[in-house]
Specification:
Blueprint lengths: L7 H22 L3 E9 L11 E11 L5 E9 L7 E9 L3 E7 L7 E2 L4 E3 L4 E6 L18 H10 L35 H10 L30 H7 L5 H14 L3 H21 L3 H21 L2
Parallel strand pairs: 1-8
Antiparallel strand pairs: 1-4, 2-3, 2-5, 5-6, 7-8
Length: 308
């Protein structure tokens, strides 16, 4: 064995660093849910209730290798300056999402947010359905086009007054759980010619096509480098080859359990920012490499049992 001038303080520091990495790795892997901050704009509300408006917005998310996830949430729209904009938080299973769509099943077409992304600072996904991406009103039967069928629904419900909570006050709220046809597009609680204007302006418009799964999509760093094609740098330094079975096992654990969710990807980025420095430091220190290999044994064992 090659002797090194390694003192006890250095060994303890290295142990603490490795312990932190292992704890972060497991916390990331067992994170069962991600959050998505959604900002939604309803197209051109003409007549808005001063108390605001509660509407059920349905979101569809796609992640490669998984079926679509659909989540509906009540979002409150209100405010003096931007009454047509509402903000909400939805919770979804932790996966590597790359696409999100939104719609109000009772009133709007579906829109897709092409700028959907994971925000590392807040630790959540961010979706924006505003401006050119706002939800277009006039689709009253939840199909993909505003047409004569929607006009027929409007005509049948003309002059209807809505009171969502039975308090005797007319309102346009459509919280989640309302499934009957509802033609109050403006949100004032009445079906009138203001609602018909949406049918006129948007007649013939269609929903944006749904998101498509990209089977070859891989998790990448900010520089475009694919983390899933890189070996675990610290383990590679310890076992002196990326072909070691332990390195392969840890790499598979990263690909299957860390790169598949937001928290895991944040950890992986942290690892590849700081791991190379540790790997370079221990590369010629046989005592430290032996300590690291011993410390990695329980992690390698768990990774082996949880990867396919």
């Amino acid at each position: 064995m090659v002797k090194t001038n390694l003192n006890k303080k250095e060994v303890n520091k290295m142990k603490k660093t490795l312990l932190l990495i292992m704890v972060l790795m497991f916390v990331s892997a067992v994170s069962f849910a991600d959050q998505v901050k959604v900002t939604v704009e309803l197209q051109g509300k003409i007549d808005f209730n001063p108390n605001g408006l509660d509407q059920c917005i349905t979101f569809e998310l796609l992640a490669e290798g998984h079926d679509p996830v659909e989540v509906s949430v009540n979002i409150h729209f209100g405010g003096i300056f931007s009454p047509e904009i509402g903000v909400g938080i939805i919770t979804v299973p932790n996966r590597n999402y790359h696409c999100i769509a939104a719609r109000n099943k009772l009133h709007t077409l579906r829109q897709v947010d092409d700028s959907f992304y994971w925000d590392e600072i807040s630790g959540q996904y961010v979706a924006n359905f505003t401006g050119e991406n706002q939800l277009i009103g006039g689709n009253l039967n939840d199909d993909d086009v505003i047409d004569l069928k929607d006009y027929d629904i409007f005509q049948a419900l003309m002059s209807t007054l809505y009171d969502s909570d039975g308090d005797g006050v007319v309102d346009g709220n459509t919280p989640c759980g309302v499934f009957t046809e509802h033609a109050d597009i403006t949100g004032n609680g009445r079906v009138d010619l203001a609602d018909f204007s949406f049918l006129q302006i948007n007649f013939g418009k269609t929903s944006e096509t749904g998101c498509r799964v990209e089977p070859d999509r891989v998790a990448e760093g900010d520089d475009g480098h694919s983390w899933s094609s890189s070996p675990c740098v610290i383990a590679t330094a310890c076992y002196e080859t990326p072909m070691a079975e332990e390195v392969k096992t840890l790499s598979a654990f990263r690909d299957e359990h860390l790169l598949t969710n937001g928290a895991g990807r944040t950890f992986v980025k942290f690892y590849y920012q700081h791991g190379p420095k540790i790997a370079d430091y221990i590369s010629d220190k046989e005592v430290i490499k032996a300590v690291v290999r011993k410390s990695l044994r329980p992690l390698v064992w768990v990774a082996d049992k949880t990867t396919q």
